[in-house]
Amino acid sequence: VTIAEFLALKKKDKYYDTLAYKLSKALVIFFAVGTASGTVMAMELFLFWPSFMKLVGEVAMGPFYVEVFSFLLEAIALPMYVYFWKDFKNRWEHWGLSLAVTIGTYLSAFTVTEINAWM
Question: Would you say 60 and 115 are in contact if contact means Cβ atoms under 8 Å apart?
Answer without folding.
Answer: yes
